[in-house]
Amino acid sequence: MDAPLRDMLIKAVEILREATDLTMDEVIGIRALPESTRTPEVCYALGVLEGAAVALRSTKREMLEDHDLLTAAKR
């Protein structure tokens, strides 16, 4: 597995989880996040997920599942 890619995805997922109460399934499934959560950092994180999925020729859901990032880690 490509460590730099995984690190970038982990950071993007962390940003999105901190910014909203939505699950990653909900975040990747909606067309637009509420205005109040669309900060530059959140938009960047969404772009990272979109770009990585396109580069890997997969859906965002498949990519996050493949990297064990779709669900939050058990605490």
Low-confidence stretches: none
N to C succession of SSEs: HHHH
How many strands appear in the DSSP assignment?
0
Alpha carbon gyration radius: 12 Å
Question: How many H/I helices?
Answer: 4
Topology (SSEs and partners):
Blueprint: H1 3-19, H2 24-29, H3 40-56, H4 60-66
Write a brief caption for the model.
This protein has 75 residues and is mostly helical.
General description of the model:
The termini are far apart. The protein has one domain. By secondary structure, the chain is an all-alpha fold. α1 packs across α3 (40-56). The protein has helices at 3-19, 24-29, 40-56, 60-66.
Jot down its keywords.
globular, single chain, mainly alpha, 75 residues, 63% helix
